[in-house]
Every structure is written in C-alpha cells, then in structure tokens.
Amino acid sequence: MKSLTEAYINSLAPNANAIKNGWGLVKKGKFQKLAQTSDETLLFGECAGSGKTPYYTSADFMNEESPVFRCTCPSRQFPCKHSLGLLYSFLEKGPFPEEDPPQDVIEKRAKIEKRNETKKEKATTPRKINKSALKKKLEAQQKGLDILDVLIQRITRSGIAAVDVKLLKEIEQTAKELGNYYLKELQQTLREFTYIWKEKVDEQTLYNEAFSQLTSLYTVCKKGKKHLSERLQREDLHPDTTTSIEEKLGHAWQLSELRECSRTERDAELLQLSFSCRLQPARKEYIDEGIWVSLNEKQLYYTKNYRPVRAAKMMKAEDSISAVLQTNELVIYPGEGNLRVRFDDYQLREVKKDDWNKLELMAETDFAMVIKKVKQQLKDPLHNKHPLSLLHYKQMGVVNGTWNIEDENGQRITLSHGEHASLNTLSLLQSTLRENGMMLVQFQHDLATGKLTAQPLSLIRNEKLIRLAI
C-alpha cells in the first residue's frame, strides 16, 4: 500500500462534506475494530452507526492507483464517510493489528481480477463499427443541422432585438428537438442562448452575449454541414481527430477511440495551477474545471467534470490539488489551443524545486507575441474564446485605475474581471509579489469595447502558488 497522506485521502473524497464527516467519525471514536492484512493491501474495520449493528467498511489497495472502497451503509457515495474515516484513522493511529481478509472481500477480489482480464482482452481487440448505424446517425445529424440553420437565418433576418417571448418558446422547442438528431452540444448551446433573456443584465450586455452565442451556433452549423458531408463520402466514416468539430456536434469521445488515434501521453506529470466549480443554469450542471501544466510537455491543459444538478450529491466533485499528479496515461481530447485532458489512475508527490524551474522556462516573456498569437487564435470560430497563457511579468500595478502587468520590453496587458472576481485579491498582495513573477491568465475579448484583456487566475513567485480565482 502506498504511503497515505491527508492530501491524497482528501482527493478521493466525493465532496467537502464527506471529508468533514469522515474526520468527525474519527474524533468521536466511532470505529470499534480496525485491522489490516499482512501485505498491507487491505484496511478494514467496524464503525458504529445509528442502529445496533455496526457498518463494515474496507479500503482495498490491490490496485494502488485505483483503490476499491466497500461499506455496508446505505450511502450511494463512494468512498462514503465511513471508508474515509477508516483511512483517516490509519493516518492517525496506524498501523492496525494484522488479520486475514474477510471472505466476502476475497470473493469480490476474484471477480475484479476476472473483470480486469476481460477489459484487457477488449482493449487489445479492435473495435467493430456498425457502419450502417453510424451512417444513419450522421444523416440524422445533417437533418438536425438543416432545422437549426433555418432557425438561425430567421433570427438573423429579424434581428436580436426582435426576439420576444413567443420566439424564445420556439427556440426552446427547437433545442428540445435537436436531441432527437444526436446534436446534444448544439442543443445545450441553444438553451444557453435562450437563457440570456432570463438573466438580469443590461440591454447592451444582452445583445453582446446573444450575438456571440448566435455566431458560435452559425459557425458550428456551417462547418458541421461541410464536415458531415465529407465524412459520409469516406468509406471508413472515420471521425475528425484533429479539431473539436466532433465534440461541437455532440460526439462523446470514448477512451478506446482516443487510444486508437494515439491521443495519449505516457507517464505524465501535471501541476494544477487553478481550479473552479461553477453552476451552469442553462445546462443544469455543475462544472468542475482544473487548469494544469504538463511538466513533461510544457503545455497548458484543462480538465472538466460535469455533474447534473439532480445527481450532484451522488457524484464525486473534483477539488483543488496542490501536489504534482503522476499518471501512467494522460488522454488528450481533439481540439484547438489549450486541450482538454483526462486521467483515471494517478498518484501524488510533493512539488520540487525542479518543477518550479520548469514553469520559469515555459512562461511567456514577450507580451507582444502573446497578444498576436491570441488574436490569431480568436479568429478561428472553433477556437476556445478564452485562451490560457502562463506569463512572466516584470512588474504589476495600477495605471489610470486599471490593473496591468508589464514585461521586460514595457509591453502591457490589461487585467480584468472574468467569471471570477479575481482582481479584488490583487490589492491584498504584498508589494514584493508585484515584481518578477509568473501569472496564469485567461484572455477575453470584449465585443462592446473591442479590447483584449486578461483575467488573472493564479500567481507564482518564490516557489509558491497563490490562487486568485476560486
């Protein structure tokens, strides 16, 4: 069993309440019996519950990078507070007395081994594609795009100012209909478009946001039609693995697909620079987003975890991680600019001086070149509208009431609020942090003013990471 740390155990928890409740069980002395196997791969014990019969909980580390938690409690969260409390107890009181593993654990281990063997066989067997069913799906998507195209043209001809309650209901009905044509992502984007009118924003902001959403819908619709037409002409019907068009049309990438396309990085090391959790009302989802730097490839990546509001309590919420994350396989999604990644099994290690040195080497020092690159990226309609960049600044301060960072050449980048009010924290920083540091920023283009600004997400100096956005 790997060396357990509180940070690692916290990373396993489904949410902050589970961590609090797990520690609560330990502090209250609820664990009546604690034991471990001689090979240190299994921790198990009894925890007093609300009834006469205690809960039997265990943490199985046969696969160290993907531990299995079991408990007789009725909770649908894994690990539950009892399993977490077991780990915290080991952290505080371990090692436990040695005992043979319970019979039910032995039987369940055998089932897991058999299941893993089946998975390995499937992984080595090439996927069989039902071309007939896939062709029907692509043709259905074409029909759905035709329906969306008619709606977009209608809104464009009448103008955004003409959008009224009646038209909004028609748009919502069309969004619902797009689900029948396998266009889930466009369905969500259309719902986000209608939600703008439900927000309490001024008229200019409403028009700017609506115009941006409408432009995105038009672009994906136009490029999607061309892409589907070209794909249907190919004999193998192979998807596009270089851009985000498939995802924009609603395709959910399977790990097996991405592995076949060699979109993986082996033995990756990632350091999280920023983390946020936000509610997307139109989608009715919580989105956990982490921004990471690959210490191997010196690239900025992001992770996204979607949790439907109705099931959020039952799903694991991601959290910030302050250690270096090591994974045997990093899966990289197709796209433009900063790419989305995914990892399953991982372990954590402490951040070393060499890691900070790697960040220093990859940080951009020429702001003029950065601005030029970002503007070029924003010209691509499929590109992320909020590119990320790690910048090395010479100094930071307020000019004419506005925060700016400046490089060695005197070139400045204006800082602004984004989804997070991170500017409020800059005035609280020590004066020494305002010189010769690194800053992770997220660029944004204001349609109303035409200005390109950057939202500060985190600041790095003297081998310390200060998160400005939460």
Can you describe this structure?
The longest helix has 31 residues, at 203-233. The strands form 3 sheets. A 6-stranded antiparallel sheet has the order 13-12-11-14-15-16. The chain has a 5-stranded mixed beta barrel with strand order 5-6-7-9-8. The two termini are 33 Å apart. The protein is globular and about 75 Å long. 36% of the residues lie in helices and 25% in strands. The protein has helices at 6-12, 16-27, 81-93, 103-124, 131-158, 165-178, 184-195, 203-233, 245-248, 255-260, 353-362, 367-378; strands at residues 31-36, 42-47, 55-60, 68-71, 264-280, 285-294, 300-308, 324-332, 339-342, 347-349, 388-399, 402-406, 412-414, 435-445, 452-461, 464-467. α1 (6-12) runs antiparallel to α3, α5 runs antiparallel to α8 (203-233) and α6 packs antiparallel against α7 (184-195). With 470 residues, it is α+β, with helices and mostly antiparallel strands. β2 (42-47) and β3 form a beta hairpin. It folds into 4 domains: 6-124, no CATH class; 131-247, no CATH class; 262-353, Beta Barrel (OB fold (Dihydrolipoamide Acetyltransferase, E2P)), CATH 2.40.50; 363-467, OB fold (Dihydrolipoamide Acetyltransferase, E2P) (Beta Barrel). The relative contact order is 0.08. It is built from 12 helices and 16 strands.
